[in-house]
Amino acid sequence: MRRYGKHTDEDDIRSRPNRKGNRPRTHTRPKHEDAADGMVLTVDRGRLTCLVEDRIVMAMKARELGRKAAVVGDRVALVGDLSGTKDTLARIVRIAERTSVLRRTADDDDPYERVVVANADQLAIVTALADPEPRPRLIDRCLVAAFDGGLTPLLVMTKSDLASPDKLLELYGHLDIPHVVTNREQLASGDAADLVREQLAGRVTAFVGHSGVGKTTLVNALVPEERRRVTGHVNAVTGRGRHTTTSALALPLNGTDDWVVDTPGIRSFGLAHIDPSRVILAFPDLVPGTEGCPRACSHDEPDCALDAWVAEGHADQARLYSLRRLLSTRERTEGD
Question: Is residue 217 a contact partner of residue 246, using CB atoms and an 8 Å limit?
Answer without folding.
Answer: no
